[in-house]
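INFO batch 0412 | record 1 of 1 | parsing
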Amino acid sequence: MTTPKTPVADADAGTGTGAATGTDNPAAAAAAAAFAAAYPVRPVPAPGPVDTAPIAATPAELEELDSLWQAVVHETRTRGNDIHLPISLAFAERLCRAYPEADAELVRVATLLHDTGWAHVDESRIISEGFTGDWRKATIRYEHEKQGCGVARRVLPGLGYSAEFIERVCAIIDGHDTRPVAQSLEDALMRDADRLWRFDQAGIALASSWFKMDPATYTDRLATEIIPELITQAAHDMATADLNRSTALLKTAVIR
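INFO prediction complete | emitting tokens
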């Protein structure tokens, strides 16, 4: 699929003001403005190869992250993170190949850790508050972002990551669900990876239950709400290919 290219300003993606970026933080607003200026066309065209094959064909494979996985095993046991995070990481690695100018290590580490904060909030509130109503602005979503930064600051120093790198990771994690715009290419790739897993059959099976939707209703939502949120052309192409495969497999045109 080739999505029509749209200038950021026309797409209402923001101009760098606090109102447009959803933050009163001048540094965050400046970062969002700089990203918009550096990548003025949306979806952002992919200079590298775009792989639209089923994600199971290319699982995340970098062994240097194994120690990080082992450090957050506890955090993978909440809210299906042991399914969500590995699939999201595999998509993140694909996106990094499509956008080789990005800091791939930053994208991978931020993706691996972005939802670990769910393990440190009231689990009884995750589904009741985090996946109903205006779920993007639910208090518990802000809480899990802050807790995810806490996980990063706890586990990354002992694995040899610098303080500067850790803060860059936290800048992505903090706001990945609740901040309306990306502040860097790496932030954009992590956000897209976080959404792309939903289009795989495993993601549909798990996430549709969180939102209390049948697969047909949920895949309709993916098409109308989530694909338009994707920032990069590579993510658009991957999502469209996966959605077509998943709806055919799950017979959503008939079972609804």
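INFO post-check: Residues 108 and 239 are 19 Å apart (CA to CA).
INFO record closed
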